[in-house]
Design goal:
Number of helices: 12
Number of domains: 2
Distance between the termini: 33 Å
Largest sheet: 7 strands, mixed
Strand order of the largest sheet: 1-2-5-6-7-8-9
Strand content: 25-35%
CATH superfamily of the largest domain: Ribonuclease Z/Hydroxyacylglutathione hydrolase-like
Bound molecules: MU-OXO-diiron
Number of strands: 22
Structural class: alpha/beta
CATH topology of the largest domain: Metallo-beta-lactamase, Chain A
CATH class of the largest domain: Alpha Beta
Helix content: 25-40%
Shape: elongated
Low-confidence stretches: none
Mean pLDDT: 96
Length: about 400
């Protein structure tokens, strides 16, 4: 494999993992993923930016075959999909220094047992000269870990952003296209960055002062259309939620589904965009993506024994971890003889700072009176969205 030139002296060493199907043993990867390292060659020094998941280290070393000297290994993030091969890189290039911030150094020493003398610590805004190439280090803590940072290559206006602006997408294309990158980026943002939305907002503000022609993330393709990329991130992280309701449900004998079906129809009649998610065999990535811009989340669950269905419990727990910006939540469902489905779900989502709209819990197959309650809930959601949500037509896909 040969490094792929992005611009003069700047190369992509993308390690595609086409057949990886799960990340963090949790998140489905429908299009695989990639671990991107980059090489920046100045007239005097050479820097390798990040490495690769050790499972694919041989691909990284294939790229490095002709590279006799690496002076610096910049580590933006200690998670092993980017840092895991650094000990192997240091074994091959023993003179190289690992350039990173003190927190990342601490993590790399703990997780990978890299000795302290191998490091060169940098502060936010510090620069490193390679000879005609100036690396500026930009702290961006809590992209999803506390030690994350980026590097801005001044002469080429290139931001090496690590996980930030990344996408789980294995591809041979060097650069992203808007129509194919939107969904993988949204999925990626939803899974790891949504819980840190306020940090992401600050990071976007911090980056606004830089002229950025290329964004080179550590997953997926390089972005040249940087305005589009920044705009979609602002929509996800900063904008008000959309006039959209996510109705995530599970039904055992059809009663809960009858409520869900009526709610979806009525919401659509009221002009609310709806994403209906069957939780029988959930794709956690799709659930996460649906939550990015929804103003309302409705969980539909039957009562199992004395509480909510375990699959609804799982979805509620996942949503709570992801901290979406929804403003309203509700629970609908049916029961046979009693139970505490609403209490179970409500107790699972303390991180979602949303108003609980009156749940609709009915006994057995819903009657016309029960369905009227669903109609009222749909009307209430539509009313609440007025002024609290932006039109969902602004979603760019
Ligand atoms: Fe791609 Fe947080 O590692």
């Amino acid at each position: 494999m040969k490094p792929v030139k992005i611009t003069e002296g700047v190369y992509s060493l993308r390690v595609n993992h086409f057949n990886r199907r799960l990340f963090d043993s949790l998140i489905p990867l429908p299009e695989g993923t990639s671990y991107n390292a980059y090489l920046v060659k100045g007239s005097e020094k050479t820097a390798l930016l990040d490495s690769a998941d050790p499972e694919k280290a041989e691909v990284l070393f294939d790229y490095l075959k002709g590279e006799e000297k690496i002076d610096y290994v910049v580590s933006h993030h200690a998670e092993q999909d980017h840092s895991g091969s650094i000990p192997l890189v240091l074994a091959r290039y023993p003179q190289a220094k690992v350039v990173t911030n003190p927190k990342c150094k601490e993590f790399l020493m703990t997780h990978l047992h890299i000795p302290a003398e191998k490091f060169m610590e940098v502060k936010d805004g510090d620069t490193l000269q390679l000879g005609g190439k100036t690396l500026e280090f930009v702290y961006l803590p809590w992209v999803h870990w506390p030690e994350t940072m980026a590097t801005y290559l001044r002469e080429d206006n290139c931001l090496f952003s690590c996980d930030f602006f990344g996408a789980h997408l294995a591809t041979g294309e060097l650069f992203s296209e808007e129509h194919t990158i939107y969904e993988p980026m949204k999925r990626y943002y939803a899974e790891i960055m949504m819980p840190f939305r306020s940090n992401i907002k600050s990071h976007l503000e911090k980056l606004a002062k830089y002229e950025i022609k290329f964004i080179a993330p550590s997953h997926g393709p390089v972005h040249k259309n940087t305005r589009f990329i920044m705009d979609i991130y602002r929509d996800w992280a900063v904008s008000e939620p959309h006039n959209k309701a996510v109705v995530a449900y599970i039904s055992m004998h059809g009663s809960t589904y009858a409520l869900v079906s009526r709610l979806v129809s009525r919401l659509q009649e009221f002009g609310v965009c709806v994403e209906k998610l069957n939780l029988e065999q959930p794709d956690e990535g799709r659930v996460a993506m649906a939550l990015v811009d929804a103003a309302t989340i409705v969980i539909g669950t039957p009562t199992v024994l004395t509480g909510a269905h375990p699959k609804a419990v799982y979805a509620a727990h996942l949503a709570n971890l992801l901290r979406p910006k929804a403003k309203f939540v509700s629970v609908i469902g049916s029961y046979g003889w009693g139970g505490r489905a609403v209490e179970t779900i409500a107790g699972l989502i303390p991180n979602i700072k949303a108003e609980l709209l009156k749940p609709v819990i009915v006994k057995g197959l819903p009657t016309e009176a029960d369905l009227k309650q669903i109609d009222d809930l749909a009307a209430l959601i539509a009313e609440k969205h007025k002024g609290a949500a932006i039109p969902c037509q602004t979603v760019r896909i």
